[in-house]
Amino acid sequence: MPKARDENKPAEFEELLAQKIELEETLRAIRMGEIDAVVVHGNSGEQVFTLQGAEHPYRRFVETMEEGAATLSADTTVLYCNASFAAIFEAPLEKLIGSPLGQFVSKSELLVLEALIDNGQKQGARGEIRLITRKGKPRTVRLTLVPSQQTAIESVCVVATELTELIESNEALRVTEASLRRLSGQLLQLQDQERRRIARDLHDIIGQDVAMLSMSLDHLGRLSLDAAPESMRILEECRETSRKIGDEIRTLSYLLHPPLLDESGLASAIRWYAEGFQKRSAIQLTVDVAPDLGRFSAETETALFRVVQESLTNVHRYSGSPTAEIRISNREGKVRLEISDQGRGGLAGAKRVLTGETIVSLGVGIPGMRERLRQLGGQLEVDFGPNGTTVVAALPVTNRLCAHVESPEAVTLSTEPPPEFQTEAGIHRSRILIADDHELMRRGLRGLIESHSEWAVCGEAVEGNEAVRKARELRPDLVIMDINMPNLTGIDAAQRIRKESPATKILFFSVYDSAHVVREILNVGGQGYVAKSRAGSDLVNAVRIVLGGKTFFPSLSKMAQMA
Q1: Model pTM?
Q2: 114, 183, 220, 304: least surrounded by Cβ within 10 Å?
Q3: How confident is the model over 484-508, as a mean pLDDT?
Q4: Whole-angstrom distance, CA of residue 388 vs CA of residue 346
């Protein structure tokens, strides 16, 4: 018997070896997804176990789709997965099936994975895990899990979606949008700078030349009283054309960039613009400016002024409101501008944009203003209510700007007038100081003044601080002061001069022509105002009246005084 048993060992060994090979092939086929079902023989008879994901109608779809699909047990063991799932986890398909999925994620992400599987078995779950590629590149995968009802063991079906490219694209898009916003803000700033430059050139160069031309034509008219009627007619046409050109240049300059914004600040510019808008549109405006508003940076004042322009334009075009209100204040480090009307509450015909879940209308310029404020750290809100529209702009302000003013110097003034202006042959010549930053204009004023024997030009100043200093040194009877002066505005310089020398009279001479400008002149104690566009016809009379102790204001300005 022992010998027969030994003879049977090779046969048993061969049979076991064949079974081992068969089992390995079966396991390989299961892992590769080549088997749809397994038949198990037991005491209760044959049992058929259908492998998860092996249903024929869906098999090809699951195997070929780009998203990863898998079935996991409660301990994260992969019972089945497609090729995409294996590729996402950078593991061979035959190695991944039958192995815990936790082996293919980092320790820090293992707890996240186990929590997702636990929630997925109960009610379904969705979450993201972070993977690190072999090259050390971080990746993000979204896992969507639902409980499985098709197997005898607790399991969960998983769909894995690669989000790395999407996240990278979103980040690139975010960076691009941020760059576009910065570029938009820079373009708006460049646009403002160019508008300011063109406006200043129109005002300081062309406007001054035209004003000088008007003065010369007026002077020529007085010298040509005996000329032929046809010559006088042509001269009058030239004078009228010159005045029209001056008005058009001034209007264009103001629309591009109002000089008052730079010289007198946001409050003055808003009041000036509101006055003009009310006349042009017949819409009654109420302007409420905090008395302690002060000055801000040029960017801040320009941005807020553009909001006023755009908002009032929309009120005029779309709202149908007979009234509007502007309020501006500076509290707790923020300047707040509010423009409201009582119109239709929407900007009919304007560009429509989606805000949250509702569609509202925005004027074409509002998005640009919002971006301009965003660049400065502020925000713009537009509320379209049933009883009107309210636009609110808010900007943080870190500091206020003050005009550059020279420190007062201790000086000893002589009680005697300068020798060259002493009485000659019983005729006292009034001393006049000209303060204007344009040489051509100073030259024209000097010629006009010195053509009258009772007047003499005692000096000239090209900027505000120099005007204050020379008024202190020369003690003129009259200062002809331009409002638009470098370093220190004519308004501020006049205030200093009047404080140091109350006897000195001041006649303002400027291209500005608005009721608000006249009020500012009156506030600093100015005795008169002449528009440069009417210098030829008004200046001589204005100088004579002011030196005589009276005030001189054009008829338009007188109406402003009574307003």
Answers
A1: 0.55
A2: 183
A3: 88
A4: 7
